Known about the structure:
With 122 residues, the chain is of the alpha+beta class. The chain has one domain (2-101). It has three helices and five strands. A five-stranded mixed sheet has the order 1-2-3-4-5. It starts with a strand and ends in a 27-residue tail after the last strand.
Amino acid sequence: MGEDRWGRSINQQTFHRHNGKDLPEGTLVLEPRATYDRAIVGSVEADGERVTVYRRPLLVKALMDHEEMRWTEAEEWVSHNTEGAYVGPGTPYVTELDVATLSGELETVPADCSSCFLLFKS
C-alpha cells in the first residue's frame, strides 16, 4: 500500500490497464479528452474509489503537442494544474512509472520518486 500526496491510500493490486475509451463509468478524466486521453494508462483504487491513472511524461508530451507548449511550460502546467489539483475523492492519480511494459513483475521505482507507487499486473 502507498499514499498519494493527499493521503489517499492507493491499492496497487487493484490496478487495471485501460485506455481513454474503456474506463469504468463515473471515473473522472482530464479535459479536453482529445488532449489528455493518450496519457491514460489505467485505473486504481484510492481509498476504495476507482480513479484514473495518468502517466506524467505522456501528459507533458500531450501538452507540448496539442497546446504547443515548450517542455518547461508543460512540466510546470502538469505539476501545478494536474498533480497539484485535488478535486475530491475521484481525483486522478499521476505516476512516472511506465506501466505499458508490465510483464507480471514489479516496475522499477526511481530512487528519487518519493510520490510514486508500485503497480502490479492484475
